[in-house]
Amino acid sequence: MSALPGSAEGTAVTGLDSSPVEPAAAELPPLTEQTRLEAREIIARYPVARSALLPMLHLVQSYQGYVSPEGVTLCAEELGLTKAEVGAVATFYTMYKRRPTGRHIVSVCTNTLCSVLGGQRIMDALSADLGVHHDETTADGSITLEHAECLAACDYAPVVTVDYEFYDQQDVDSARELVAALRRGEKPLPTRGAPLTDFRGISRQLAGFNQYDDAAAAIDAPGALGPTLVGLRLAEERGESAPEMRRAASSSSGAGAAEAAGVESAKRGAPEPAGRSLVDQNDGTDTPAGTEPGTSGQGPGKA
Ligand code: FES
Fold this sequence. Notes:
This protein is an alpha+beta fold. Helices cover 40% and strands 7% of the residues.
């Protein structure tokens, strides 16, 4: 019996029975010997092999667009785990997809702050436009839509991410324009962070393989700290400051001294808030065309 997520055995492990893994699509690119070599490269990064499972699952997604049954088997074989163990991990985290995804995954935060500022309206509008609901993919395969819990960017609410890159302070119109551009094959620059790639491309990055000749392009991009620093600026304008932290009673030795020293050190070393410089104007082109997966700095070939 299979122990894949969604299978009877996998369900016994995970307690989940509502998201069955769909059979691999016929056009799915196969996992090759190159995939195994890359999986072993990931494993070699860790002192304990099973620690490599999370990036290995991203690697599988970078080839096939989701954690396929074939991918679960590969991870289990390479790590000496059971498929049930791999399935239990793959079904725990929402970033591991149980069915083939579209070219881009659009996540709309519908958690409290985003929702009251319009996140749910954005989700409803996109759902109506695209004709899909949460965790469904458009018929043309361009977009998988999902609602997301807090994306840790409440100061930019309401936020939408595409392939986990941020598009801040959206409204219904801007989100519609964003998705329309994606469906035309465009890659609008995120508000901050790295340039946009696609779901398989970002999965490759999450597996620890860079897509770009210039490594900085994948990790550095313009910052947008405005809303985050509003409180700090207001405090400076008003001459307000946080009260001094009380030193521990025994400040000359032991943990108290270490704590106090750490606070002082943190104060001295605190960097000036400033936006990051734009290192590269790369438009976020995804997997370079005509390249073989696994070569340094390259992504998997297109299906
Ligand atoms: S509630 Fe949407 S990012 Fe926190």
